[in-house]
Amino acid sequence: MYELLGAGIANLMQVKYLLPLFLGTLAGVLGGALPGVTITMTIIVVLPFTFGLDPLQGLAAMTGVYVGGSAGGLVTATLLGLPGTPSAIATTFDGHPMAKKGEAGRALWLGIWASFFGGLLGGVFLIAATAPLAAFALRFGPWEFFALFILALSMVAGLAESSLLKGLVSGCLGLIVTILGTDPVMGQDRLTLGIGFIKGGIDFLPVLIGVFAFSQVMGEIERGGAARAADAAHAAGRLVVSQIKVIWEILSRPFQLLWFAFIGVVIGVLPAIGGSAASMMAYDQAKKISRRPQAFGSGVPEGIIASESSNNANVGGSLVTIMAFGIPGDAVTAVMLGALTIHGIQSGPLFISQNTQLAYGIFAAYLLAHPLMVLIMALGARWMLRIVTVPKAALFPVVLVLCTIGAFALNNTMSNVYVLLVFGVLGYLMVKFGFPLAPFILGVILGDQIEINLVRSLMTDSNLSLFVTRPISALLLGAALASIALSIWQHRRISRR
Amino acid sequence: MKLSKDGWGGLAVLAASLFLFALTLGLKDNPLVPIGPGFYPRIVLGLTALLAAMLVVSDLLKTRMPVPRARLAYGAVLLHFAVFGVYAVALPWLGFRIATFAYVAATNALLDVPRSARGWLRVGLLALGTALATYYVFEHYLLVLLPRGRWTGF
Fold this sequence. Notes:
The complex is a heterodimer. Chain A contains 20 helices and 2 strands. By secondary structure, chain A is an all-alpha fold. In chain A, strands 1-2 form a two-stranded antiparallel sheet. About 1% of the residues of chain A have low confidence. Chain B is mostly helical. Chain B folds into 2 domains: 57 residues; 68 residues, no CATH class. Chain B is built from 5 helices and no strands. The radius of gyration of chain B is 24 Å and the shape is flat. Chains A and B meet through α7, α8, α16, α17 and α18 of A and α1, α2, α3, α4 and α5 of B.
């Protein structure tokens, strides 16, 4: 394993890989820093640039975006009090008060180094856990895969903030997208509705790009927030600080750092919970284990360390899920899954054994993206505050043009651009009606696999009881039911309050 | 009893899933495999219809608190979807460069209305820069073929 990792790092050190990794990390940091532009949006914009690259170059760029984006949000969170990404919300609680007290440099660098160490701890888990988990998943038959996908979908639907029912309906809508066009088992046409571009099925990437990009851009437009960007004029002054002092401030709390990173990793492994929940939970834990919880919110370092270390460790956890099981943990890894598909690579349990070099290349890219992120922050944190003032009136049309290129270039047809528009409208309407997008996207991604595994299992043996008599399948289906039951209980508890 | 957004959303999903369910009844089974192409869609659509119906019923039974409504620019959203729709339709006819120039100029001008010659210059430069930079990067560097115009050949 260490030899493969060493070879992966040596490979990545070549300019042809290092450059896309650096540019991806830079794009991620900038996208993360821009309030209103999420990591998902950034990775969607970067996706078309990877089409002409080889798989490792493309995936290195995307890994860079993911790592950079998870850290980028802290710049505006600490200096302006505006979280660049949802995962940086908890960073504003103590980062901004600390900056306002005249310690902007300390607040910023505590966040940067906490992201660095948290991310690396997540990387240790990623490298150590992916292969054993993938080997475990190799024991799965169609019954277990079907049960695993149902568990992923039920967990994501159950986490919907609005209501469980809406989460489940949203997941089912995603599944409906996959039944239009072609039967994936026999390749027979079905439910084409007489529309040309539905024949042959609908690619999930234009769907994903459409629902996320349009819902975000149109959401800003309806609030009238597109004309001018945030005013960064009041950003705090000196960002120069003793790096050794800041690093010591973090490393002198080794158990806390480990605990926050562990929270991030665990949340990352579970599908669709995401970095924002990880940072919030870690922040809450930091408060609970602190000797001075009342000081939280006034600029305490533990608050920043908790939030930033966990949201970057979360990236490592998310990558484990996609590399070992082929299940995207969130929208960002869903786009990465799409990038793999474009390059003809199948993710899932066989990924690491069939594409060992590529898998270790991704591990290496993940590890190297962290020092690159620190370097980018060191060189450009002050300049970033200028960039975040780019008017969204200029940003939005450029983003939508890049989304169009991304959709068109998938197979050089206009069909995908029409799919992009149709699902852009649908995504916007779903958001307006309070239907969460995450279960929908997971439904679109897993739909074909759910059908293939269900049909395969029934064609192997029509005995339905096998789903509950095979131990792993039974365990996974039990967990799916438990997740729905837990979600019902939680929603009831909240509504009683 | 009045429906809220949840109820209307549920009703729309219920109608769509029942319509598609009806279409699956016309799907012919394949004699080679015991499970036909309509088997799984019927499960998914049936489940969706059931969940959507539950959403409508739960919305009807819910007691509502008055919610203050924010003023949102739905007209602007509609306009921007329409502009993007025109862009999507125009792409194969005008070609990537001309259509993108027009789209970026129109969208930028609608989002931040230019009030002086300088403003129009900004719109023009952004549109020209976006069209040319994306064309150059994707066509020449990343070897991604972008749409050529049937009318313009450009």
